[in-house]
Amino acid sequence: MPRKIPNPLTALRLLLLPALWAFALLNWQVSLGLGLLVAAISDAADGSLAKRYPQFTNGKFDSLADKLLTFSVVLWLVILKPQLFTQHAPILLCATLVYFVSLFTGWRKFGRVSTLHLHSGKLGGLTQTGFVLHSFLFGGYNVVLFYIAVGSFIMASLEELAVQLTHAEIDDEHTRSILPYLLQRLK
Question: What does pTM read for this prediction?
Answer without folding.
Answer: 0.84
